[in-house]
């Protein structure tokens, strides 16, 4: 059946298929034994946690040997702030030399940085902020959260 029209009609069931076989299929002399299928629970893959486990409370807290003071002039200085903060170094951020729009961007960036690394951001003066890592305790009269810092940033200026 070499004619494509006949093949199509056979496929659609309109005509009976005329199969041409040269030889009949030969069955194997000795059939292969079939092993019984055993169902078992799938092996569990090791689980990798997405974040580091928090240390136990009785672990000694690392000492603060350094505090970085930064006077950024443009938003591109944020990389240096982030690198230091990720290493666990507290950062004092003085935004008095920045334009208001860049200063607001820097506060937004710093708030996200401290939130992501479980630290704190506190307003010291109208344009000076303290970024403290998780392991640093800050003593003072009151503590501000990141949203309060952003809301009151330009109020005192």
UniProtKB/TrEMBL annotation:
Entry GO CC: cytoplasm
Protein origin, superkingdom: Bacteria
Principal location class: cytoplasm
Keyword entries, A-Z: Cell cycle, Cell division, Cytoplasm, Septation
Any one GO BP annotation for this protein: FtsZ-dependent cytokinesis
Pfam families: SepF (PF04472)
InterPro entries xrefs: Cell_div_SepF, Cell_div_SepF/SepF-rel, SepF-like_sf
Compartment(s) of residence: Cytoplasm
Subunit composition and interactions: Homodimer. Interacts with FtsZ.
PANTHER family per record: CELL DIVISION PROTEIN SEPF
Entry function: Cell division protein that is part of the divisome complex and is recruited early to the Z-ring. Probably stimulates Z-ring formation, perhaps through the cross-linking of FtsZ protofilaments. Its function overlaps with FtsA.
Protein family membership: Belongs to the SepF family.
Protein name: Cell division protein SepF
